[in-house]
Amino acid sequence: MTRIDAERLEEGNDLLIDFDKLDQVAQCGEAVVPVAVQDADTKEVLIVAYANEVALKYTLEHGVAAFWSTSRNRLWVKGETSGDTLQLVEVRVNCEQNSLLYLVRPLGQGACHTKCADGTARRSCYYRRIKDGKLELVE
Question: What is the DSSP string of the chain?
Answer without folding.
Answer: --HHHHHHHHH-SB----TTHHHHHHTTSS--EEEEEEETTT--EEEEEEE-HHHHHHHHHHSB-EEEETTTTEEEETTTTTS--EEEEEEEE-TTSS-EEEEEEE-SS-S-SSB-TTSPBPS-S--EEEETTEEEE--
